[in-house]
Amino acid sequence: MNDHDLKYWIALKSIEGVGNIGFKNLVDALGSPKNVFDASLQTLKVIPGIGEKTAAHIKDFNNWKNADENLILAEKLKVGIVTCQDPLYPGNLLNIYDFPVLLYIKGILSNDDINVAVVGSRIASTYGKFTTEKICRELALKGITVVSGLARGIDSAAHRGALAGKGRTIAVLGCGLDIVYPPENEKLLMEIAEKGAVITEFPFGTQPNAPNFPSRNRIISGMSLGVVVVEAGEKSGSLITARIALDQGREVFAVPGSIDSAGSRGTHQLIRQGAKLIESVDDILDEILPQIDGYFHKPEPGDKTPHREIVDKERTSDADVMKMLNDAEKSVFKCISLKKVDIDTVIASTGFKAAEVLNILLNLELRGLIEQRPGKMYVRKE
């Protein structure tokens, strides 16, 4: 979308009374934000969720300078602005009730991301941080993108773990992208932007005020297939994220901790309420992987929107399969037969690094070409 069109999106979103739902209703009714500004007061006020007061705010709007300044600053800071109509907009996020109509992005969003959120207490124990880094490193090695909120404690450990696993991670902020919060995470933020993405729905200049964080949390859970809570007190914001995730139909996982630790009370409460107890990344993947076909599908003829390619399960010919794989995937696939083979054998046969082999195996598994058996053994699907 060009800057001329984006200006109307930014301007409309900034108007008092026009939230994400109102914005969507206006665009659904009138076709575009520009058409909204061109519409009459009478037309605007009868649109659901708008009313006379908000309609008047739209007609009286004249702060175009602010919209222009946001666009100028975005270019200066190398920040992308993606609307909910953009193909790069996270598909899972569109499934929540009040999805953000605009996202500011530093880094790269990918349609191939399989997102799992990992959150927890800002005041984290050594055990909590160690466990978080371990889980997220292993998720990254499996090709999973770790989503968190860049907060102190567990969030920071989640991002560091994903980066240590040479994987992608996404940080969702409760402020504008021109503000680093917490300030000590500036270096981490820049590394996340290089290896993944830092995103927010808030325009430049927005301070990290308390009401922003519940809004941020709905994005963290909304763009993910599941939410892992590592440590949380009884009144932790992470519990709010877990409740939001449940409302959004996402999976909720909790890591058990010491019965003597205050940080375990929230996670143990979640487990009692039905959250899935996890002891390893396999407990997460066992729930997440079966969902993938529901989120990614084959494109219809003429559909240019990028999709994860899922191999037709009826297609059994090796020749047909090989046409759909890149060279690295072919090398790994050739190592796997109808007899079980372990990952060390695949690494030795291909000469690839362990992380690369793990990522390829996960992609082949997601495509329905192979399956993992107990003991980390792999076989082709018959």
Shape: globular
* Individual helix count: 18
| Integer average pLDDT | 86
Low-confidence stretches: 294-301, 303-316
Helix content: 40-55%
Rounded radius of gyration (Å): 22 Å
Strand content: 5-15%
Distance between the termini: 45 Å
Please trace the helix and strand order, writing H or E for each element.
HHHHHHEEEHEHEHEHEHEHEHHHHEHHEE
Describe this structure in words.
- With 382 residues, the chain is α/β, with parallel strands linked by helices.
- Helices cover 45% and strands 12% of the residues.
- It contains 18 helices and twelve strands.
- It has helices at 3-13, 20-30, 33-38, 41-45, 51-60, 64-76, 126-141, 154-164, 186-195, 212-222, 237-247, 265-272, 281-288, 292-295, 318-323, 327-335, 343-350, 354-366, and strands spanning 80-83, 102-107, 115-119, 145-148, 169-172, 197-200, 226-229, 251-254, 276-277, 341-342, 370-373, 377-380.
- Strands 1-2-6-5-4-3-7-8-9 form a nine-stranded mixed β-sheet, sandwiched between helices. Strands 10-12-11 form a three-stranded antiparallel β-sheet.
- The protein is globular, with a radius of gyration of 22 Å.
- The model is unreliable at 294-301 and 303-316 (pLDDT under 50).
